[in-house]
Amino acid sequence: MGHPRRLRKKYATPRHPYRKERIEEENKLKHEYGLKNNREIWKTKSEIRKYRAQARKIQAETTEKRAQLEKELMTKMKKMGLVIEGGLDEVLSLTVKSLLDRRLQTIIFRKGLAKSMKQSRQIITHGHIQINGRKINVPSYTVQVNEETTIEYHGEMPVLEPTPEPQPEETIIPVETKPSVPAPREISTKPKIPGPIGGEKQ
Question: Which domains are delineated in the chain?
Answer without folding.
Answer: 9-94 (no CATH), 103-158 (3.10.290.10)
